[in-house]
Design a protein that fits this description.
Elements lengths: L6 E3 L7 H6 L30 E3 H5 L3 H13 L2 E4 L8 E5 L5 H15 L3 H4 L5 E2 L3 E3 L2 E3 L14 E8 L16 H26 L6 H6 L3 E10 L9 E6 L5 E6 L4 E5 L2 E4 L7 E5 L1 H6 L9 E4 L6 E10 L4 E2 L17 E2 H14 L10
Parallel strand pairs: 2-4
Antiparallel strand pairs: 1-6, 3-14, 5-6, 7-8, 8-9, 9-16, 10-15, 11-14, 11-16, 12-13, 12-15, 17-18
Helix pairs in contact: 4-6
Organism: Triticum urartu
Family: Belongs to the iron/ascorbate-dependent oxidoreductase family.
Protein name: Protein SRG1
Amino acid sequence: MASYDQQFKVLEVPPIVQELVGAGVQEPPSQYVLPVQDRPAAAVSEMPEPIPIIDLSRLSAGSAEEFDKLRSALENWDLFLWSPSHLRPMFLRAVGHGMEPSFLAEAMKVTREFFNLPLEEKQKYSNIVDGEKLGMDGYGNDMVVKENQVLDWNDRLNLLVEPESLRTYRLWPTQPPSFRDILSEYTIKCKAAANLVFRNMAKILNLQEEHLVNMIGDNSITQAIFNYYPQCPRPDHVLGLKAHIDGSIITVNFADAEGLQLQKNGVWYNVPIVPNALVMNVGDIMEILSNGFFKSLVHRVVTNAEKERLSLVLVYTLELETELEPVSELVDDKRPAQYMKIKLHDYMEKYHDTYATGTLAIDGVKI
């Protein structure tokens, strides 16, 4: 049975950012303001080339061209995009994920409707435990675990969605009425696409096609994160989500507006919005499993003075008792293990600590 139960002792519980904006705050409170050297630059570089769009229906059919595009996307950008222009069941853009534009619109609609509920209703699903701890599931925002921690300008609803046996349904909103059904269907559709990507990642690594799917298998955890980024009066001083890499195998991101930025070779780039497209990127766990062949991606979300932003994110990870280390078939005399063996529970504790300070947990496990 997978384990998931983590709680974090926090120094304080931040205010709900949506409430600050609703109250007409003219300047962000000081705990949201970044040091000068970390503030987002007004000018961000344009992409030197478009982020690849992968057609998952063609990939599923064995297209060598699509497989090569996937390999190139993972080697050069660590991400891709997918969108539903072919309607069959790192960052990458992909098409052919089997989700109609109308379904994706409904998923974004219920996300917006949840965050538009009165605060009293949303707080029924609070992540606060016993007044001083935060659970992994529930409604809230930053875990304040460090003195002088700079906070993100967003509010979140985190929900474990897989395995179903570990769902905490008392934290699953009953309003809007279709919320639970939409989330369950979205999870199923994304899982099918994720397994297809895992099979092709295994082929890229010269592993048996089912190697990663079987290894992840019943040992996997999927978490849904609904993010609300309100308008910010000082987008030049405040980030919606600080620079980080994901503590995941892969992450799937669906957003309604621009704001996501990625870093490559020390340069920040805007990730453009493609209608009805989802973004998939590589996380820490996959970097370690692949012995560094795939790299987790540094990214952040900037704020906007005029527009709010919503995103629905699925994070694929492993159960907390997993011993995390490179796949044995990817370790030899020519390429020894690049990462030390560590229990995922211990790694995630490091991850949350380093996220709070703006550093990278994976640097601490490199050999």
